C-alpha cells in the first residue's frame, strides 16, 4: 500500500490513501525524516512475521515444561 503525506497537524500526519481518501495517522507511525509530499509504502514482512510467530510459539511451549 502506498500513502502520500499531505500535511502535518499536531500529533498527526494527514495522509492520502490509494483510494484518494484522507485519514489521520499518528505521527509516531511516520518514518523519521518524512515530509509533506513523500510517498510511504506499507507492506507485510512475511519473513519477520514467521520468525516472530516461531519465537512466540517457543515461549508458549516453554510455559508448559
List keywords for this structure.
65 residues; alpha+beta; four-stranded antiparallel beta sheet; 1 helix
Summary of the model, kept short:
The protein is α+β, with helices and mostly antiparallel strands and 65 residues long. It has one helix spanning 46-63, and strands at residues 2-9, 12-16, 22-26, 39-41. The protein has one domain.
Count of discrete alpha- or pi-helical segments spanning 4 or more residues = 1
Unreliable stretches: none
Give the integer mean of the pLDDT values. 94
Report the oligomer. Answer: single chain
> Which H/E pattern describes the elements?
EEEEH
Strand content: 25-35%
What shape does the CA trace take? elongated
The count of strands amounts to: 4
Instruction: Estimate the helix proportion, in percent.
Output: 25-40%
Distance between the termini: 42 Å
Sheet with most strands: 4 strands, antiparallel
Q: Identify the strand order in the major beta sheet.
A: 3-2-1-4
Tally of domains: 1
Using the CA coordinates, give the radius of gyration. 17 Å
Content-based structural category? alpha+beta
Amino acid at each position: 500500500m502506498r500513502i502520500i503525506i499531505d500535511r502535518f497537524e499536531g500529533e498527526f500526519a494527514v495522509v492520502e490513501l490509494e483510494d484518494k481518501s484522507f485519514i489521520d495517522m499518528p505521527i509516531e507511525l511516520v518514518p523519521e525524516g518524512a515530509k509533506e509530499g513523500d510517498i510511504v509504502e506499507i507492506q507485510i514482512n512475511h519473513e519477520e512475521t514467521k520468525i516472530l510467530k516461531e519465537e512466540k510459539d517457543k515461549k508458549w511451549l516453554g510455559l508448559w515444561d
